[in-house]
Design goal:
By secondary structure, the chain is mostly helical. Helix content is 54%, strand content 0%.
Length: 374
Amino acid sequence: MTIPRVAFRWPTATLVVGLAMAVTWGIFVAGTTRPVRAQPKKPAAKAATADILTERDIIDQVTGSLNRSVKYMAGVQIRDGSPMDGAWDDCNAPNALAILSIMGLGHVPGRGPYADVLERAKKYILRTQQDSGLFRSKRIPGAGPMYSHGLTTLCMAEMYGMDPDPDLEQAVRKAVDLIVRCQSKAGGWRYQPNPSQQDVSVTVMQVVALRAANNAEVPVPQKTIDNAVKYIKSCAHPKGGFGYQSPAQRPPTTAAGILSLQLLGHYDDPTVIKALDWMSTLPVKWSTAGGIRYYYYFHYYAIQGNYQAGGKYWNQWHPRVREMLLEKQREDGSWNLPGGSEGAGVVGRNRVYWTAMASLILEVYMHFLPAYQR
C-alpha cells in the first residue's frame, strides 16, 4: 500500500488563519468528527445561544493561547536561528518543532510577522546538514541523532511545501535518502544512522517525515513503506497497544504505533483499532502516572492518532486534552511539564520543546500541516 498523499495547502497571508478558524473551530468544539461547512442556525431558545457563546469562548481561548505560545518561541530565538532552550541550545529538535508550530498556526515563510524567524531557523537548520544527508546539530537529544533527524526532515518537508526553495528541495531529498538507507532489515529505525537496530519511538519520527516528503512529491520507495508497516505490526500487543521493540502495552509507543500505521495507509487495521481501544482507557491528566513517562511525546502522537481515527475516539479524547493544556499554560505563553519525563531537569530547561509540543497538540484541529491530515 502506498502512502496516502495529501495536497499541500498554500496559505497566502496570516489572514488565512482567521478565515480557517471561522469555518473550522466552531465545529470541532461541538464534537464533529471532521470539519464541515457550518450551516446557518435558526433563531432558537436561549440554550442554543448559550452553546454558540461557549463555542466562541473556546475559539478565543485556544486562538489566544496559540498566539501567545508562538510569540514566546519567536522571542527566545537566537540571532543565528537556533532556539534558546537550556539543555538543548543549538539543537535541531526543538528548533524544528518550534518552526512546525509557527507554521501550524498558519504562518508561512516569506511573509507575515514571523517571516524573519522562519527564515533564520531555516538557514540554521540547512547549515547543520552533512554530506550524507543527516541533519546533525551541535547538541543531540537522546542516544543518537535519528530522533532529531526525523523531526528536522518533517519540518523541512513541510516548509518546502510552502516555500519552493531549491535548497530546501535538495535538503529534503538528501534527508529522505538517508532515512531510506538507514532502515533496518526488520523495517524500523533506531538512534544511529545505520541499519543495525530498530524501535517504535524512533521509527514513528521517520514515518511522519516520509509522509511529509511524499506530500511534497519527494519519492519514497514502496519497499521502505512495506517494511515499516511490517515492523510496526510486529510490535503490536494481541490485546491492544504497541511496545518499544516487541509486543507490549506502553502508552507512548502505542500512540506512536497507531499514528505510524495510519499515516502509512492502514487506518482500519485490526491492530490499530485494538490499540485505539486500549489507549482510550488511559487517563488524560496533568501527571506522568500510569506509565505515561514521556508526557508530551505521548500526547503529541495520541491526539493525532485519535484525530485520524475520528468518531468516538476523537470525541472522547480531544476536549480533555484541550482543557488541560489551556489550564496549564504559563503567563508568558510557554508550558512546563508535570515532571519526571523527557529530561525535565531544572524547571525552565527545554521549555521551547515543551511549548512547541503543546502548541502542535492544540494545532491538530487546524489542519494546516499536510502530514497530519487524513
